[in-house]
Amino acid sequence: MSLAQEMFAIAPAEGKANLTAAQLKLLAGKARWIFRVGEAGFPTVPTIAITRAAWEALQSERTRLDTRLRTHWIACLFKLVGKDGKAPMLAVRTSAANHNSGLQPARTGIAAPTAPEDSVDPTRPLAKAIKQAFESYGFSQGGWANFRGEDDRARQIVLIQAAAEGELEQFLTRNAATGALGPAPLNGAPLPRLPESIGSLISLLDAKAGRHMACLVAIQKGKVQFLSARPVQASAAAELEAAVDRVQNKIWSPHNAVSRVDPNRLPQLLHPRIKSTEDVTPIATGLGVSPGAASGIITFSAEDAARLRARGKHCILVVNETGPADIEGMKAATGILTARGGMTSHAGVIARITGKPCVAGVRTLSVDTNEMICRIGSRELRPGDRLTIDGSDGSVYLGTLPLAQPHIGGNIGTLLGWSDASRSIAVRTNVETVESAATALSFGAEGIGLARSEHMFFSPERLVALRRMILSEDEEARSLAVNGLVDFQTGDYSALFSVMGGLPVTVRLFDPPLHEFLPRNDEEIEETAASLGVAVRALRLRLERIAEVNPMLGHRGVRLAITYPEILQMQMQAVIAGAREASERLNKPIPVEVMVPFVSTASEVAWVRERTMAIVANSGLLKSEKVKFSFGTMIELPRACLRAGDIAGMVDFISFGTNDLTQTTFGISRDDAPTFLTVYQRKGIYERDPFVTIDEKGVGEMISIAIQRGRAANSRLKIGICGEHAGDPVSLKFFSGLGVDYVSCAPYRVPVARLTLAQAAT
Amino acid sequence: MSLAQEMFAIAPAEGKANLTAAQLKLLAGKARWIFRVGEAGFPTVPTIAITRAAWEALQSERTRLDTRLRTHWIACLFKLVGKDGKAPMLAVRTSAANHNSGLQPARTGIAAPTAPEDSVDPTRPLAKAIKQAFESYGFSQGGWANFRGEDDRARQIVLIQAAAEGELEQFLTRNAATGALGPAPLNGAPLPRLPESIGSLISLLDAKAGRHMACLVAIQKGKVQFLSARPVQASAAAELEAAVDRVQNKIWSPHNAVSRVDPNRLPQLLHPRIKSTEDVTPIATGLGVSPGAASGIITFSAEDAARLRARGKHCILVVNETGPADIEGMKAATGILTARGGMTSHAGVIARITGKPCVAGVRTLSVDTNEMICRIGSRELRPGDRLTIDGSDGSVYLGTLPLAQPHIGGNIGTLLGWSDASRSIAVRTNVETVESAATALSFGAEGIGLARSEHMFFSPERLVALRRMILSEDEEARSLAVNGLVDFQTGDYSALFSVMGGLPVTVRLFDPPLHEFLPRNDEEIEETAASLGVAVRALRLRLERIAEVNPMLGHRGVRLAITYPEILQMQMQAVIAGAREASERLNKPIPVEVMVPFVSTASEVAWVRERTMAIVANSGLLKSEKVKFSFGTMIELPRACLRAGDIAGMVDFISFGTNDLTQTTFGISRDDAPTFLTVYQRKGIYERDPFVTIDEKGVGEMISIAIQRGRAANSRLKIGICGEHAGDPVSLKFFSGLGVDYVSCAPYRVPVARLTLAQAAT
After folding, report:
1. Percentage of residues in chain A with pLDDT exceeding 70?
2. Is A636 on the interface with B (CB under 8 A)?
3. How many angstroms separate the Cα of B757 from the Cα of each of A707, B252, B439, B707, B731?
4. Residues A234, A510: Cα–Cα separation, whole Å
5. Which of A116, A142, A217, A416 could make a disulfide contact with A149, Cβ separation 3.0–4.6 Å?
6. Is A255 noted as a catalytic residue in this protein?
7. What pLDDT sits at residue A249?
8. Under DSSP, is residue B747 helix (H, G, I), strand (E, B) or coil?
9. In 3-state terms, chain A is what percent helix, strand and coil (to 5)?
10. Are B146 and B139 in contact (CB under 8 A)?
């Protein structure tokens, strides 16, 4: 017999199966569970399996009028016959590795063949059912263009079972919503009455499969006979609870639990989500830029959003794009929907900070605030109409869909506790407000890896101060504006250091790409002019002068510190004063890490380092032992990667900003990418969105080069990753292999990183 | 005596100087020419030299009341005494390696010391003059913080000469304007009457120095005695003519001439320039983005410029920034001055293409077209006022300064002919119009290395067609718009291929960063709407939708070809039809090289290659042998450099686009860089502007990596450089070391590249 030509009993009517190693390998899908349950001694319906290769060989033998294989086949069928020697009625089942809806449902009530030739004749009931079962696999289970696919196809199996006697009943091994050990109802059907002995079957299957299983049994006179089982997808919460339960019952080791929970599913536990999308179709799709689902009344303005919120109503703020003037409206809204913008758009950034679900860049959406109407495709919607958005996948639905609130319990904490035991890479978070820091701490963040100072200005009164600084015409005006910021900032840093309770905090020096902080439309310009006390005309002129063609590659990051040293001076003054306050409040030293962003040359690092160290030395803070100060740089440009050897000698740490590094390595503006990224993915140009999963071959090599050169020049160099990739499991596994010291991600991604890094460590 | 403690005769009154090797090394400045002329046997005033080290040792000996060195010094002074044994009157001269205005002028009429102690006593005339001469060197001749500087200082020399008898006369060895062998007048003074024997001195000096020399002689009774000489800077034209003349007179080999002409000075020969800026001060400075000088009446509009031109008047178009609507005005103007924009701004690009001098990004300039006034700093200027701009260095002057028109003659051709003999790297040009191609050919371009197809649309009627394509709402509209372009393009390519007469032409696939091609202000939007036949409101909506945050990193280059394959199809159709026409006209095959821009992955190259090759194959053109077709890609993103190994297997050639590669490697938008680049250079963060001279340590390493990986994967890979750095001498020397096959630069830079690459080859 050639490879995979196999026909054998997996649960014989009498005795044990005694499978060969080759046969064990063929046990895909249900076959596996039937074999294991039977092998464990639980009463199981007699079952035999035949591979496609064997079935095709039987058919080919028929045309040659040979009977050698058929004889073997009939001997195999006899394994279904019990002690009484009576041929049972038969059932034919598929047993695919992955369930799909095209598979033939079980055929039952098939009479056993009465003549040897009937057993292989596809016009007779048994052979016909087997033939159709194989046909229903189709070619979907893997490509058919390569040998590997052909081989897999030959190994597909079909099961023939003796008919079970008694009532057939279905149930789950664990509760689909809570994860508690079953029996539990399947698909909302009432739970059948089951004898007590079902408990041992459930425990057996749960231990063997380690997943929620849908189970089919026959019950006759209180006796249970096992027919079949297949895994079902439970909610993330239920799977997590089941994993913890298995550890507590010594079925799994903590290590098993850590390695078997999918990190991608954790965020679902931490945000509201749509209960079911089975019977609904999105009316539009954009980019899910801030996760979670939200339902509410459509509103087009910040004022309406605030009014609705005051009346306790949920609303979705629908705009073409957001700007600084919309921040209060975004805070008041339950969710945000925009026509333009991407992951790093103003809407995306603010939504993630404030934890609001947000769908951005819906190309078919346009908002006409004059007519108080918005169009999504050909639909016209008005204030008061309802929408549901899913900021995790970018879907937009008409009406209010039921949402599920997070059900966490202590299980996630338990699992992550186990994770931490086998993890060596630290997990920090990217936050700059006390609220987000508290959230991140509750998720287990071990410090702040990226506090984006400029984000501390996302409130109307702060924004005026920041704009005054950016719009200054000369050094004197800038110094005045800058001084107006010191008090704000000191309080901010003091509060942030305090809430972190002595954990390290990385403060990134100011890095405001201008376009994110300046007024855009007429109304905003008029407001800003009024608040700054300048003429609208003068403000417009100034705005025109400082407007940039490509602000992402413009006058930002370290360039700002070097051209306007008074900003660096102010910021360091505030950081130092904040650290002093926090240190006194906590009565312990504050680990402050100052990080200079967007460098491309070692000379930039040297320049900022010299001035920063002078300011710190002058403050006397180091001697007082109130801070543990370190200085580092953000590596987010290709040139900085190449020159990491020069840079490393001057810094205590480097942290990779993978967002900007991806933008510059690929030459793609993340904000503008949506216009071609979908086409690129459809045409297979990109396997994955490089802004979601790190591009190992390009950006990844850049990072590798930098780490290798940096470590060679400074063996004590601490290395981190602080782009959004630090919250993506596939990317985290790659970073883990590079030997970084820490990663820093959004608060809601901290659990994902903790779990993924534990998996990667083992 | 310690190192450099030397006192010796360089032209003794009697006999030969017989210098040691150490003494020969000390001959900086005038000393060198005095020694050489004397050594050659031409009557020369007796001269001795003393180093600072020796002078200081003499002074130190005085305090010790020792006389050993002084005895030696007096012996040395006696070398100035002639046969008659009478002590002559003396002169003291500095002899610095580089002339500077702080040096003490010659002190003459000094009586010889009458007592030995007088010869070193700084209160006595001779020693006082020597002391002051050394003091006048200051510390300016090199840093004084390092040993090297100290050492150089010890080696500085002062000359003591016997007074010459007769009339002192000054003249140049060659004419400062024409380069013809002298005697020629110095600084516009009338040429003195000189005896015929002066000819041998001039020939002698010209051969020894190989530069224009200012010469000082004493003439008594028709006899000439040489005193001193120093090199002077002549015009580029004069130096070139002198170099060629020396070769023709067998003083130099052609190789000497090639290696001694500074390539940076050639462009001055090819553009008008300001005759003299000695007595004028710029009223503003911007970026010189298109070389050459221009004078004219200020005008603020294209119409006025056209009107003035029609009346034969020169004008300078002064605007805040230029856009497509200004193209006719720019063509009509003599020069262009803008308040905003940089090297790659619309103004810069068009100005270089049309050969108009242009100064851009003058931050102190603002234009108010309503009040018909422009302000430069605190000055208010109106139409009719006159300005002179220098597009080579970015200066703006009030009024009309006299300009010098290029004086080329056949010398530049002769020199470049010699260059070509020792050059192995080909020089191509970046052009797309027949006019520019003809210019480049006249400068010796060996092909087109970069024809930017989108630039063929910089005329009003073409622009409408291009905008129709960009603004298309769907594929059908786009196909219609695209078809409207085929005829334009076919004619363009046919003409371009024809004028190049069978030299290779690299056609870059469309790469229009959107912001450079779309209407911006209200007026342009209204005009565009009218020409496209759409409502202004609809056009605005469309413009808002496709507006990009960072257009340089947006939907351009290969991304356009992949998302809108109909554009690729149209362009290839036009290229093929154009090549067919040109081939028939010239009756020879056309070497067409198609280059896909802005790739970051090998998959992009594969996708475009497959479609491009299919279109070419379908055309039947390859079989007809009317084209020699090759396919390549532009490497201008860091990721493409890293993946060059994957890419190289699919292409015949790669060409580095160093402008974009510098932008992405540094993360700097060239358009926005001026706001911090000047501060960066002032603070020493950048040694050089990386957009002018290639950054060897960063961008250079990127290129090296790509070349190494590309060649390893495809040994027949042809490699070029087509960024603006390909016209910069320092960068060209670096590229030459990388082993590229060709460079491609702006037409006016072709001679620079030919000369530099010849120098680098030897």
Report:
1. 96
2. yes
3. 37, 20, 20, 19, 10
4. 45
5. A142
6. no
7. 94
8. helix
9. 45, 20, 35
10. no
Contacts of B537 (CB under 8 A, 6+ apart): none
Which DSSP helix (H) or strand (E) runs through A583? helix A565-586
Helix (H) or strand (E) holding B607: helix B602-619
Count, residues in chain B: 762
Residue B540's identity, in one-letter code, is: R
Inter-axis angle of helices A52-63 and A125-137, to 10 degrees?
Answer: 130
Answer for the pair B126, B110: CB distance below 8 angstroms, yes or no: yes
- Cβ of B600 within 8 Å of Cβ of A698? The answer is yes
**What is the rounded CA–CA span in Å between residue A295 and residue A400?**
6
User: What are the pLDDT digits (tens) for A269-296?
Assistant: 777 888 888 889 999 999 998 888 999 9
Q: Which two tokens stand for residue A229?
A: 């089982």
B346 annotated active-site? yes
The Cα–Cα gap between A362 and A746 comes to 24
If pLDDT is split at 50, 70 and 90, which confidence band does B200 have?
Answer: very high
Choose among A626, A629, A600: nearest CA to A614: A629
- Chain B partners within 8 Å of A684 (Cβ): 603
- For the packed helices A411-421 and A750-761, what is the interaxial angle rounded to 10 degrees? 40
The β-bridge relationship of strands B379-381 and B403-404 is unpaired
Determine the Cα–Cα distance for residues A272 and A286; give it in Å rounded to an integer: 19
Q: Catalytic one among A76, A271, A315, A346?
A: A346
Kindly give the pairing relationship between strand B157-162 and strand B627-635: unpaired
Q: Is the CB of residue A73 less than 8 Å from the CB of residue A7?
A: yes
Going from the C-alpha of B539 to that of each of A365, A366, A377, B527, the distances in angstroms are: 17, 14, 18, 11
Q: Cβ distance A510 to A456 under 8 Å?
A: no
Q: Which two tokens stand for residue B201?
A: 């001195």
Which class for B129: exposed (0-12), middle (13-18), buried (19 or more C-beta within 10 A)? buried
d(CA A257, CA A262): 10
Q: Is A659 on the interface with B (CB under 8 A)?
A: no
A194's tokens: 């089951």
Residues 24-53 of chain B with CB under 8 A from chain A are: none
| Chain B: residue whose CA lies nearest to A660 | B667
Residue of chain B with shortest Cα separation from A669: B553
d(CA A636, CA A661): 4
Which chain A residues are closer than 8 Å to B685 by Cβ? Answer: 562, 601, 603-604, 607
Question: What ipTM, to 2 d.p.?
Answer: 0.80
Q: Does residue A744 sit in helix, strand or coil?
A: strand
Tokens of A758: 């534990």
